[in-house]
Amino acid sequence: MDTRSRNRERREVLLKLPLPRLFLVTNAAVVGDPGFADRAAAALAAGGNRLALQLRAHEIAGRELLRLAQQLKAVCAETGSQLWINDRVDLAVVSRAQGVQLGTRSLSPGVARRLLGEDCRIGYSVHSVGEAVARLGEGADVALLGSVYASASHPGRRPLGASAVREAAAGGRPIVAIGGISANRVLSLIEAGAWGIAVLSGVWGSSDQAAEVRRYLDALEAALPVNELRRR
Fold this sequence. Notes:
Blueprint: E1 5-6, E2 12-13, E3 22-25, H1 28-32, H2 36-47, E4 51-55, H3 62-79, E5 82-86, H4 89-95, E6 99-102, H5 109-116, E7 121-126, H6 129-137, E8 142-145, H7 162-169, E9 175-178, H8 186-191, E10 196-199, H9 201-204, H10 209-223, H11 228-231
Parallel strand pairs: 3-4, 3-10, 4-5, 5-6, 6-7, 7-8, 8-9, 9-10
Antiparallel strand pairs: 1-2
Helix pairs in contact: 2-3, 2-10, 3-4, 6-7
């Protein structure tokens, strides 16, 4: 699996940070919970360097989002986890986040790369195999493909199924599956070629975020070759 970024001249660029296997995504409701800071800290402590937290909250003003990003970045520095910020490349630069997650409302991967430099990971949220191939070809390091299964956060979206993950992953670039993924579905997605998984309600919907993070990581470790999850 090729996790290397490529610059405009298509030369491979080795990034300093490994690409996590588990991505924990937020939304405005999660971030707006009064106990969010403590819940996030528990999840990050449980995930360590195998976890990336994606700060996604489109409805929150930039100043508040930056405050949250800086707070979470401090926790990530203690746990070894990564902080990724959705859409807001400017906030990623200021907070020194390790990654950004782009989408249709965002800058293109190429423009984001010029602003971020070569050390920051770039993900792109896609909803078809063709879009995954296109965005990876434009310079994204990883494509988050979904919804793979029916998801409460996107009730009107037709699930793509594990076959779409298999088709997208056949190109040899990292595909992270998202949408309706429970721990017992991890094995089938890894077998289909997924690099990893992204979850939202599977963790935040629980009363014990740390326990759920460990459950997903255990499922990933069981599905991947021996020690591969911890080594990368």
